[in-house]
Design goal:
It is a single chain. By secondary structure, this protein is mainly α. The chain has one domain. It is 79% helix and 0% strand. It contains 2 helices and no strands. Helix 1 crosses helix 2.
Amino acid sequence: MVNAFNRVYAVYQSKKVNMRVAAYVVAIERLKDAMQARGWVG
C-alpha cells in the first residue's frame, strides 16, 4: 500500500497533475507493462 502511494506521489510531483490523474497514469503504466509481458503489444 505504501509502495503504491509512493509511486502515485512521484508521478504527482514530476508531472504536476492532481493525485487522481497521477493514479490513472500509474494504472495505465501497469497495464502497459502487463500487456508487454504477455506479448500483446510490441
